[in-house]
Amino acid sequence: MAVISSASPLSIASLFRPIRKYPTLADLVITATSIRCLSSLSQPMDDRQQPESKKRVVVCGGGIIGVCTAYFLAKKGEAVTLVEKSSVACAASGKAGGFLALDWCDGGPVESLARASFNLHRSLSEELNGPDSYGYRPLTTLSITVTESGPSSPSGSKSSGDSMIPSWVDGATRGPRTIGTTQTTAQVHPQLFTRTLLNTAVEKYGVEVVIGKLEQLRVEEGRVGSVVLEGGRVIESDSVVLSLGPWTGKFEMLASMFRVSGLKAHSIVLEPKDPGAITPHALFLSFHPQGGKAMDPEVYPRPTGNVYMWDVSGGRGAR
């Protein structure tokens, strides 16, 4: 049985904030699924659905880390409750670029983790119909230098090496270089991915979703015994996973142990006049504006028909 509950009264539609639907992706009908889940409350619970041996795990945080943790724990047979303060994938997990790379961390401490993550995304796409559900697809990734044209320069001029540059890229470009192929780079729509994963976890593996603010962890005999939400609701647990992102440092119990802070980045989403003309190329640009400071914007066309762009010049965060 899949149950969606709340620490306080709320409408089912408010569980997931609406996102714009695009004709190139299958609709993600989470609200309808939630209603079906609630209707199952009247059905008896059998031993197979809730065996005595299940460990009770509370995952706090409805971003990509929390949702993935809940999904895989529930798939392994644990009884999982996911607690989210507002709505699933409402912050960085829903507004990131969704770029995936196989070997860009090679030689570093997270090489094996990055490779495992890339391959896991590929297998999840097969399991969850990623291309239709959340825009998973391989990409060719290019590095390009772009110089802003002056008043007397033709705006659409390109330099030598144009054959590598997608037709929808204009301006004075130079030094195109392939830094990722369809075998080594890919993308997802991060908000659709997170919600698809949780939708599956709820419907198929019985994850319970609670909308409420975490207030306290109750520790009994040296271990966590329950979590307390704003308003006084108590959820008993055998284990608790905290995946609160930059809000971790605001949780009093953890703030005294270590510091966690967020990194601000700015992004925009563009809607091309002819989405079909935008080829699946991720662009890592070195942009030199007239009389300004160089910037390093990244451009990710999506199969949803729009183009995501962000600038990491002020600091590089999670993609």
UniProtKB/TrEMBL annotation:
Residues 56-283 form the FAD dependent oxidoreductase domain. This is FAD dependent oxidoreductase domain-containing protein. One of its GO terms (molecular function) is oxidoreductase activity. Signal peptide: none annotated. Residues 145-174 are annotated as: Disordered. It holds the Pfam family DAO. InterPro entries: FAD-dep_OxRdtase (IPR006076), FAD/NAD-bd_sf (IPR036188). GO terms for cellular component: cytoplasm. Residues 149-167 have a biased composition (Low complexity).
